[in-house]
Amino acid sequence: MSDEINETLLNADLKVVNLGLESFALELTQQGVEVVHVDWTPPAGGDPALAELLSKLGV
Amino acid sequence: MEIIERANEEAIRRMLAGDPVLVDVIPAEEAIPTLGDRMILHAGPPIDWARMCGPMRGAVAGIACFEAWAPNLNVAAEMAASGTFTLHPNHHFDAVGPMTGLTTRGQPVMVVENRAFGNRAYCTINEGLGKVMRFGGNDAEVLDRLCWLRDDFGPAMGAALREMGGIPLKNLVARGLTMGDEMHQRNVACSGLTLRQLAPALARAIQDRDALARCLAFIGGNDQFFLNIAMAMGKAIMDPVRDIEGSSVVTAMARNGTDFGIRVSGTGDTWFTAPVEMPEGLYFPGFSEVDANPDMGDSTIVETVGLGGFAMGAAPAVAGFVGAGLASEAGNFTRTMAEITLAENPEWSIPALDYLGVPTGIDIRLVIETGLAPTINTGIAHKEPGIGQVGAGVVRAPLACFRDALRAFAQTLGVS
User: Fold this and answer.
1) What architecture is the B242-412 domain classified under in CATH?
2) What is the CATH architecture assignment of B18-233?
3) Whole-number Å distance between alpha carbons of B30 and B105
4) Which chain B residue is nearest to residue A57, measuring alpha carbons?
5) Which positions ≥6 away from B358 have C-beta within 8 Å?
6) Residues in chain A within 8 Å Cβ distance of B413
7) Do A57 and B403 lie within an 8 Å CB cutoff?
8) Is the N or C terminus of chain B more exposed, i.e. has fewer CB atoms within 10 Å?
9) CA distances, B236 to each of B17, B21, B67 (Å)
10) Is the ipTM value over 0.85, yes or no?
11) What is the pLDDT of residues B82-132, one digit of tens each?
């Protein structure tokens, strides 16, 4: 990452999109940071065998 | 896979093409000729007496007395424990029943005919609120009401329906959705609309004014009168969707107070079961979670066709009643259920959601992919027999039965 980008990132207002664990979003919200939380879980609840089965079944 | 996409298109076509009409009320033994002596149909997947919950046992004992198979409740329970009665799920006999859901030969059943496919489905008449057999009630008051339904109300309602040529249900439900019903925990509008249609024919069918008044008051005094009609409608719509090779659409969800079971079109009539969950909700004064029985009944057939918890957005008042949050959040339940279904029903739309059609066709693949379990609006029974309803709430279908169903479904297609 160049110094220029780094400087922009650190000096600008944070724009946060949080995926998955809602507690991360809540922590930032409590510190006044605007967060868009996306309620996401891994496909098939993170079960690799079920996820593979789903991919074979066209999902 | 193309075979799945084609099969599911056919499943959705059949669901949307369904044309359910409430046509009659007749004795169960006439509707279901194989329903024999000492035979009891119950809600949910198969279960024996030993594993039955308290309300289900209470209802079994009560219905045995109603049918004069036992002289009293204690003897009835002993007979049940010794295997005197044959127990089967309603779903195996074209029927459904709310909560304990018992169907026996002497009870009157409402008949819903799916005129697009020619099949019929049956459900007993809703007994009203309070102490009733569907919540395990079994005292003299409960049994007397069942006798009145059998001897007076059922025959009169049947005569009225035959005279008027039946009540088409698709449009009635569409109207109910615009009036705040979701057809599981709120049936205020549809019960009223049904009464409005039935009343003139009932007046012609019943000569005695007092008897007529009692019948009209019975319907008018029961906000959940339409629930059992909606259930028979759901069964009539879903049965033609069974046994489509390659379809991953759920054709039935049902609970017996111990197990939750689902059936999937592509796996035929196999039940996939998991321990049923406890509803989360609100309790009537004097009751709490410690009194509650796990979830129970065939009424999840209404969610299977896209109503109930799936249509929560149509019924903001229900969100508060079942403790599901703010009225303004009701639509979130419907939108979430759209993530695990394949289509919207254009004929059953929800004005408050910009006429979004109710989520239709639960796909077990989408349930497992998203981890979103079907949302069910439900009544809560007391765990002890004979007490009745103690609250209302929301319960999730257990994901374990969907996982088992997915594995079995894959096997039918040679996928492992």
Assistant:
1) Alpha-Beta Complex (3.90)
2) Alpha-Beta Complex (3.90)
3) 8
4) B1
5) B177, B306, B307, B310, B311, B314, B334, B344, B345, B348, B349, B350
6) 57
7) no
8) C
9) 12, 9, 27
10) no
11) 999 999 999 999 999 999 999 999 999 999 999 999 999 999 999 998 789
